[in-house]
Amino acid sequence: MAEILASAHLPPLLGWLPRDAAIALAERHLGLVLPTDQTGQDVAYASRLATALRVDPERLLSVVAQAALQTRLDGAFDAGVSDGNTFETTDHIHPAEHDPLLKGQVVAVARDRAFCFLYEANLAWLKAMGAQVCFFSPLAGDSLPGGTTAVWLPGGYPELHGEALAGSATWSDLARFAGKGGAVLAECGGMMALGRSLLDLEGRHWPMAGVLPIDTCMTGRLAGLGYRQERGGLRGHEFHHSIRQGGDGSEPAFTVEKGDAGVRWRNVRASYIHWYFPSAPDQVAAWLASGEKA
Question: Of residues 266 and 12, which shows the higher confidence score?
Answer without folding.
Answer: 266
